[in-house]
Amino acid sequence: MTTVSIRDVALRAGVSVGTVSNVLNGRTSVAAATRRRVLDAITGLGYIRNDSARQLRAGRSRTVAMVALDLSNPFFTDVMHGAELAAEDGGVNVMILNSAEDSLRERRHLDILSQQRVLGVLITPVDEAHNAELDQLVERGIPVVLVDRTSSNSHRCSVAVDDVLGGHLAGEHLRQQGHHRVAFAGGPFSLRQVADRHAGLTAALGDDPKPRLVTTPNLSVAAGRSAGRQIIDLTTDERPTAVFCANDLIALGVLQEMTAQGLRVPHDVAIIGYDDIEFAAAAAVPLSSIRQPREQLGRAATQLLLEEVNEPDTHEHRHVVFRPELVIRESSSPAAPTSRTRRR
Fold this sequence. Notes:
- The protein is of the alpha/beta class.
- The protein folds into 3 domains: 6-47, lambda repressor-like DNA-binding domains (434 Repressor (Amino-terminal Domain), Orthogonal Bundle); 53-161 and 294-321, Response regulator (Rossmann fold, 3-Layer(aba) Sandwich), CATH 3.40.50.2300; 163-292, Rossmann fold (3-Layer(aba) Sandwich), CATH 3.40.50.
- The chain has helices at residues 6-13, 17-24, 32-45, 51-58, 74-89, 103-116, 132-139, 163-176, 192-205, 221-232, 248-260, 278-282, 294-310, and strands spanning 63-68, 93-98, 121-123, 144-147, 157-161, 182-186, 212-215, 242-245, 270-275, 288-291, 319-322, 325-327.
- The protein has a 6-stranded parallel sheet, with helices on both faces. It has a 6-stranded mixed sheet with strand order 7-6-8-9-10-12, with helices on both faces.
- Helix 11 links the parallel strand 8 (242-245) and strand 9.
- The radius of gyration is 25 Å and the shape is elongated.
């Protein structure tokens, strides 16, 4: 779907952008014949005016919305904080909504936001590919920027982190520490981040066995404890010497379960998380993690959104990708030489 701009209307009508703006704003200085050409061009091209941008410039509307994927995850709280700081700089307010990884709940939120004609929407979608509401928002002149996602749509901006690289950094570190039996804990794989982090890990392991998959229904601490139990129940010969987790909450759950069952981290099993939330460094065994620039994600996404709101006719859609960083702490170390556990 191609978004028609005011420049397209001006070109079709053979007039300046200023003349089209005068027609849209009802000014009487435009000759009748010229006004008719502009109106015909608007109709023929299907141009939809970005009223939200006009309202912001006129000082009437001051709200953008952020639809977070899971506000129980500190990662999104930090992203939200960055978005709020950038919004303050831009003179607007932020309305925070939580989809809780529920596509139906997300659709209800987007429908309400469309009716309220917010200035724009920041969103980490449950599933961008099957989300017609995002396109409908754009059709109504409400810009959309994806947060922590790389958009497959050239008509919206996105801000994300290179999660394949993040998984690769974790895998390289574990190999350097002597780990050759590695597990990957996380899910669902319908989340692009999970699939990309797994892909990066797999590539980094090279000729070593592919990582053992321990899939989880979500990215919570409880899911991590369940993953930890599955790993513990493996025989000594099967059990991995290291676990790379799709996020820090999973890693914290795995760590809790390992400790509760008498396994030593990192001596029996090393653990690496992802996100580097505040709790990672504060864990009983400080977690190694792949750090994402969380606040910077929120700031960059909001800045892109406000650019499009303020200058819809000159704004160029961009896809910003940040590099993650490996943070090494006590939870990852060289693999122990034999008899790694007292439990089996």
